[in-house]
Amino acid sequence: MGKKELKFNSKTIHGGQFPDKAYGAVMPPIYQTSTYAQSTPGGHKGYEYSRSANPTRSALENSLASIENGKYGLAFGSGLAAIDAVIKLLNPGDEVISTSDLYGGSYRIFKRIFEKYGIVFHFVGMQNTDEIGKYITPKTKLIWVETPTNPMMNIIDIKSVSQLAKKHKILLAVDNTFATPYLQLPLDLGADIVMHSATKYLGGHSDVVVGALVVKDKDLADELYFIQNASGAICGPMDSFLVLRGIKTLHIRMQRHCENGKAVAEFLANHPKIEKVYWPGFPSHPNHDVAKMQMKDFGGMISFVPKGGNYDNAIKIVEKLQIFTLAESLGGVESLAGHPASMTHASIPKKEREKSGVVDALIRLSVGIEDKDDLIDDLRRAIE
Ligand SMILES: Cc1ncc(COP(=O)(O)O)c(C=O)c1O
């Protein structure tokens, strides 16, 4: 069977991979080199300088393209470097419609870096696609979707947004960091660009910072490769190797993240001291039906607000946790807890973040793959 026809759980291991040409190494060697010998100017074996391309990075880029059902993968030094490359497709005066509830760093690069180059950003609640239509002008060139959103776990209907984007010839980019291709495949749903903070579930072990883009269209890929090389925010060979290794277990890790996520979400929802739990697996979640349609399962990311909660008692809860580590980031094998208002989303003004529900008392959990009973006991102790 050709590798193209492999199912997802095989693609994570074999997709786009070939034994190394030199000695048949099954895992791509870490080609820790900046340059490559040439027999005559231009006489090289496909690689001339590692900013332009490196064999370990190519192996990762091929894997990324395979697992996202795309054709071209690009790996960057961080998720934000990948976002930076996408926005550099635009020109001054172009407009972007972005979801209003998104990772604070994405908001920061849009507002504080690119606005000063004349790119205009509109931040819009996207749970209802009709809302987006109101902001489309002839200058709109890109719609930026993050789903599930960070940290409010809102779900955006990728297919319906892609129909709107296609009608107006607007590019649609989806940040697939929270869901991963195990849960949802934005390119299959009509998106043009998939973006990842591969730092999270793709790497999966909290040991690397990497970003990724995947596209299907050759012209778009060429433009992005040009930006990747010209701006230079590539990821190194060692980091490429680590993410590639992480991807090989993505499917089994995600399966456990989903199982544990469900158990923790249900525990919190039934706890008398918890006011609200945000997790797309609940039938009461406003876009549960869309989540059911576009996602295979509901993931291990959960946010919650304690009853009568405020800034101080949210901090007290996260400080008391022992198995959940209080830390930035998410998507690793270990469970992490975060306080968005003071951590991941501190770069969004309080008034702005509270509009989308990121209140001072909100706590975000990245449920890991430990024993779920230990995770629940830890939360029980911290909440009491
Ligand atoms: C949803 C999302 N997108 C993008 C990023 C940025 O990625 P990185 O930290 O790898 O630059 C993050 C980081 O937390 C994220 O959670």
Can you walk through the features of this model?
By secondary structure, the chain is an alpha/beta fold. It is built from 14 helices and twelve strands. It has helices spanning 8-14, 55-67, 79-87, 104-114, 129-133, 158-167, 180-183, 218-231, 237-247, 250-269, 288-294, 311-320, 350-355, 372-383, and strands at 72-76, 95-99, 120-124, 140-146, 171-175, 193-197, 211-215, 274-278, 301-306, 325-326, 336-338, 363-366. It has a seven-stranded mixed beta sheet with strand order 1-7-6-5-4-2-3, sandwiched between helices. A five-stranded mixed beta sheet has the order 8-9-12-11-10, with helices on one face. Strand 4 (140-146), helix 6 and strand 5 form a beta-alpha-beta unit. Helix 2 runs parallel beside helix 9 (237-247). The model has no long low-confidence stretch (mean pLDDT 96). Bound molecules: pyridoxal-5'-phosphate. The site of pyridoxal-5'-phosphate has 15 residues, from helix 3 and helix 4.
Task: Explain the layout of strands and helices.
Blueprint: H1 8-14, H2 55-67, E1 72-76, H3 79-87, E2 95-99, H4 104-114, E3 120-124, H5 129-133, E4 140-146, H6 158-167, E5 171-175, H7 180-183, E6 193-197, E7 211-215, H8 218-231, H9 237-247, H10 250-269, E8 274-278, H11 288-294, E9 301-306, H12 311-320, E10 325-326, E11 336-338, H13 350-355, E12 363-366, H14 372-383
Parallel strand pairs: 2-3, 2-4, 4-5, 5-6, 10-11
Antiparallel strand pairs: 1-7, 6-7, 8-9, 9-12, 11-12
